[in-house]
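Internal QA ticket QA-208
Title: Verify multi-chain structure generation after dependency bump
Assignee: T.L.

Test input:
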Amino acid sequence: MTKRYYITTAIAYPNGRPHMGHAYEAIATDAIARFKRLDGHDVRFLTGTDEHGLKIAQAARAAGVEPRDYVNGTSQPFIDLDRQLGISFDRFIRTTDDDHKALCQELWRRIAAKGDMYLGRYEGWYSVRDEAYYDDAELVAAEDAQGQPVKLSPQGTPVEWTIEESWFFKLSAYAQPLLDLYAANPDFVAPVSRLNEMRAFVAGGLSDLSVSRTSFDWGVPVPDAPGHVMYVWLDALANYLTGAGGIDGEWWPADLHVIGKDVVRFHAVYWPAFLMSAGIALPKKVFGHGFVLNRGEKMSKSVGNVVDPGDMADRFGVDRLRWFLLREVAFGEDGSYSDEAIIERTNADLANGIGNLAQRALSMVAKNLGGVLPAPGPYDGVEALSDSITALTEAYFAAMNGLQLHRGLEAVMGMVSATNGFFAEAAPWKLAKTDTDAMARVLAVTLDATRRIVLLVQPFMPDSATALLDQLGVAAEARCFGALDTVVAAGTQLPAPTGVFPRWSEAA
RNA sequence: GGCAGCGUAGCUCAGUUGGUGAGAGCGCCGGAUUCAUAACCCGGAGGUCGGCAGUUCAAAUCUGCCCGCUGCUACCA
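Actual output:
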């Protein structure tokens, strides 16, 4: 029976254009999904957009269109970006999808049936103009026409203390169950620093959660409660169930929710509490990745450093961008990107490293052996190389299974370095003049090491890896990790080699 | 304010329970080489291990204080 693996990204809020953070999360999650597929799992990969809520309704109104039409337009760029970046999702869910809305209501009914929903009052500073509540801390001090001090919303509109009817979820009842969950399964939230934060937060006591609103209607209607729409997070989190095939979906529970560090609480506290209440299994793991910053700064229009990830991919190439983000940024930590850093990193790793390794060995086979792949055989350093490759392959799998994507690539680069070292030491270009049999063996050993390297790099750079595997004569059915030890048969005719990773020069 | 973490070569970071002269990658400089995408290979320079004071025969590694940074959280107004 094939192992199954259900992985998700957070769903994006399409009230603007996708930015680098979306691209980063999609790429990282895609790499994990591809890794699992190559590792023999039957994978379900879900991503999408979170289309309900007040802000969308406001944006639609500002644009003079219906919310539904508005999100039809704004979710499309996210889909387009995913396709451009080679994101191998199985479903792009939109919370406005009919099956999702039905599921939300079913989830609500289950929670209500458990007795965890009650009607109460939600109080706060409300701006009629904005149709929004604000925290005390968000208000700004100002003066009215009489010079009296008043508080205004961040938009400068008047606010008044307002009480509205709201359904509440008995989150307070789940503090201990959540603490038990963290204790029994310390891997539930990663990195561990996030788990510790959640534990501290929950240990401090939980208040019940307001999970419906009557002040706007762009959301999923609460069953049997006219005028109420669901709290957007309840709606949004439920997408993982919808994407699993329904409330008792075949893909549930999820193996991994990949999310940004800013929404860890929703996924590590609220979500499991909702699920426990509804009597549904919990996801296995929640991973909060860091943010990628443009030259270490948050993108902002005033700083003028807003970067369109699609433009970036066009300029550098999708695989270069994917490689950079996953190799340079420690997965789970914040990272920084810039043109210079991307060029430097990818030139070093891809052009000088993997690409050059493949090219130097392949071109010798082409020139000296008519492009016919020779058989590997003994030579000084072959065993040491083999040992090194084996150890680093293990390191790669350990890192990948532990979601240390950057460590996985570090191991791969170690393999590249070891292979280049072997090649330089054996100097097959000298053997070409003295011992062509030895030369052939050395080239074959080098190419097989290269084959292993490229196999492992597939989750990160699917297109480039495919091109390289074609050049290495690797059959389409011999590209999964189960075929790592399947050496390409000697005598295979290889195509004429062409560089896959051209060196980036400033002239370009 | 509380809790947690961090501050090590230009950059990103490793550095088990304190103990050979403090490391890796990238960048930089030099050498060698020519199969290859001026790449690869070899070597080198460069660090008060945030600061101060302690504990110890011995501290980047332990303790205290200080400075700076980050995350979570609370509160005042």
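Spot checks passed. DSSP finds 17 helices and 16 strands in chain A.
Status: verified.
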